[in-house]
């Protein structure tokens, strides 16, 4: 009788462990999907911001270019063209950021860094562990309780 009961309990325990593993896997998949959706939304907002900024900066750049060109021609002072050069670089960067291939080049460079220069990505003092987090939490709670006295 004890053997049958033990066998039944072992079977139930195994089913429960499989169920917990399945639930953990589902939860992890959901977290990964949620984080990826949040990353996609943040990137979309960044691209949208770049495009909106480009509208305003493009207008400013056009007005500044026209104004400086007219001023340089009327006053016969070619040095008035000089601000157009750095403004042109900024405009080109914003255009590349909003509509060009900047994001693809950045992604390629990031992949290269991850594969060939991974040591640059290490955190100071290494990756946080459960023990280091618990130690900091205990130290903070003991400090808080000490200050409350």
From TrEMBL:
Pfam families: DUF2368. The keyword Chloroplast does not apply. One of its GO terms (cellular component) is plasma membrane. Signal peptide: none annotated. One of its GO terms (biological process) is positive regulation of plasminogen activation. It comes from the Eukaryota. Keywords: Membrane, Transmembrane, Transmembrane helix. InterPro entries: Plg-R(KT). The keyword S-adenosyl-L-methionine does not apply. The chain crosses the membrane at residues 53-73, 79-99. This is Plasminogen receptor, C-terminal lysine transmembrane protein. It comes from Monopterus albus (Swamp eel). The lineage of its organism: Eukaryota, Metazoa, Chordata, Craniata, Vertebrata.
